[in-house]
TrEMBL record:
It is a multi-pass membrane protein. The keyword Acyltransferase applies. The chain crosses the membrane at residues 12-31, 43-71, 78-96, 116-134, 366-392, 442-466. GO terms for cellular component: membrane; mitochondria-associated endoplasmic reticulum membrane contact site. The keyword Nucleotidyltransferase does not apply. One of its GO terms (molecular function) is lysophospholipid acyltransferase activity. This is Lysophospholipid acyltransferase 7. Its main location: membrane. It is found in: Membrane. Pathway: Phospholipid metabolism; Lipid metabolism; phospholipid metabolism. InterPro entries: LPLAT_7/PORCN-like, MBOAT_fam. It comes from Manduca sexta.
Length: 484
């Protein structure tokens, strides 16, 4: 037992801090004074950083402070660009601190720094995006456009329906508030501001949502401990592993990825529970709330909701949902799996990088590259994340040819095959993500002869041939129908 505690000391401390954050949620939610509530959340957030990081706490605190000054001292036209490069530049420095004669920080501090980067860069893009949207509205200031815009807002909101321009103190509070600081999830500044200005957290069933979220955590933790002990990661680097049957070596990453998923599920679920316990992210269900974004329909109308209406409406916490666990386990395609995995970060990458990157053909590559460097500089992140498009190219072909329009038994069989291939591909990539360094990855991939890259290439070539044959047959069938 003592050896287990010593080995997992940092994880146990981190887990304890998450549980403490959950337990204080009801008390934090009950603070009446908005300024007091903001400062209480910020002070506790900074204390968490210090407890987790010790002397290394200077990194997240300093980087966020520099980012805030960059936002406020730069024109709103360019603040997002300046802040992006400043924050990622500091992230590089933070991870290469040993090259500058400074000690490297713990993995837990790295997680906090990653969240700080998302918040500070995210709010800069929010400010710039809202400014551009308001500027565009002024240019289109005509009666016809106004009627059209009001109808669009009623049916579905744009990304920005009002100007977002917080002062320096509010940026400080947003950056360091304890809710979501340890493991996420990412949420917009708008969501943070609504938490203090709107009455939704007062009437949402925060306790019920927290219990409902937490009930699966013991299962995830138990499965993680079981999988990681029965199938340890380091075993793939041993001679004993290399002497096992090829099928065993080929399927070993399934166990590694299963253990990794349980670890992520437990951490993300606890992080969501910190939000639900505090009431942050509660919105009326009629807003059709989306992870990271919040309400997508009728946001301005929701803001005008009276106390009586707020008291009698239904709420959800979709805005702070990070993981769709059932979806992660059951979706058929890798494309769908990417959408339900770490949804809040996926949202950030989409709105900050993919939508805003100016060169359309390179949008996907820019999004993947930023995702990789946000995770770290290890080769394993590149192998895992940057190889996804190559599998997706083949997967999309087979999905359209054999699964999309299939029905009945054929759809079930094709669905199982695609699910198996998707799961196997993720497991193969996850091995690289976990092994991190190139030499360790090369040892494992060599033990299975790098076979999956060959399978990918074969799938893609065969898929392209089948796609071309399908296209050749299609016009002929159309002509036959016309002649008949």
């Amino acid at each position: 037992m003592l050896s287990f505690i010593a080995k997992n000391k940092n994880d146990i401390i981190y887990l304890s801090l998450l549980l403490i954050s959950i337990s204080i949620g009801p008390y934090y939610r009950g603070i009446k004074s908005v300024p007091t509530k903001k400062w209480a959340g910020t002070v506790f957030g900074i204390l968490l950083i210090i407890v987790v990081s010790g002397y290394s706490a200077i990194h997240p605190i300093l980087s966020a402070t520099l980012g805030i000054f960059a936002i406020k001292l730069t024109s709103i036209r360019y603040c997002h660009i300046v802040t992006f490069f400043l924050m990622f530049g500091y992230l590089f420095f933070f991870r290469l601190a040993d090259k500058f004669g400074l000690p490297l920080s713990s993995g837990q501090t790295n997680l906090i720094e990653m969240i700080i980067v998302l918040r500070v860069v995210g709010v800069a893009f929010e400010m710039n995006g809202s400014w551009l949207a308001m500027k565009k509205d002024k240019k289109n200031d005509s009666k016809d456009v106004k009627e059209k815009d009001s109808k669009e807002i009623k049916d579905r909101d744009d990304d920005f329906v009002e100007l977002i321009n917080p002062n320096m103190i509010d940026l400080f509070h947003y950056s360091f508030n304890y809710v979501g600081l340890l493991t996420g999830p990412y949420y917009r500044y708008r969501t943070f501001d609504d938490y203090f200005q709107l009455p939704f957290s007062k009437y949402a069933d925060c306790f019920g949502a927290t219990i409902n979220t937490l009930r699966t955590v013991p299962v995830y933790i138990s499965l993680y401990l079981a999988f990681s002990n029965i199938w340890p990661l380091e075993y793939v680097l041993t001679e004993g592993h290399n002497n096992r049957h090829f099928v065993y070596r080929m399927l070993y990453p399934w166990a590694l990825f299963a253990a990794f998923r349980q670890r992520i599920y437990s951490g993300m679920t606890l992080a969501e529970s910190v939000c639900t316990s505090a009431g942050l992210g509660a919105y009326p269900v009629q807003g059709r709330n989306r992870t990271g974004h919040g309400p997508t329909v009728g946001y301005l109308k929701l803001k005008k909701m009276s106390e009586t209406e707020a008291e009698n409406t239904l709420y959800d916490f979709n805005t702070v949902e990070s993981m769709d666990v059932w979806g992660c386990e059951t979706v058929v395609t890798l494309r769908d799996s990417m959408k339900v995995w770490n949804k809040a970060v996926q949202y950030w990458v989409a709105v900050v990088v993919y939508k805003r990157f100016p060169i359309k053909p390179l949008k996907v590559h820019a999004a993947l590259f930023v995702s990789v460097i946000w995770h770290g500089f290890h080769a394993g992140y590149f192998f895992c994340i940057y190889f996804c498009p190559f599998y997706l190219m083949a997967e999309d072909i087979y999905y359209k040819l054999y699964y999309k329009d299939a029905t009945g038994t054929k759809k079930k069989i094709m669905g199982f095959i695609m699910w198996f291939l998707r799961s196997h591909s993720e497991s193969y990539q996850a091995a690289a993500f976990l092994l991190l360094s190139f030499d360790r990855i090369w040892i494992y991939y060599s033990s299975v002869y790098h076979y999956w890259y060959g399978v990918w290439l074969a799938f893609l070539i065969i898929g392209i041939v089948l796609q071309q044959l399908h296209k050749l047959k299609k016009p002929k069938n159309v002509d036959d129908v016309k002649n008949k």
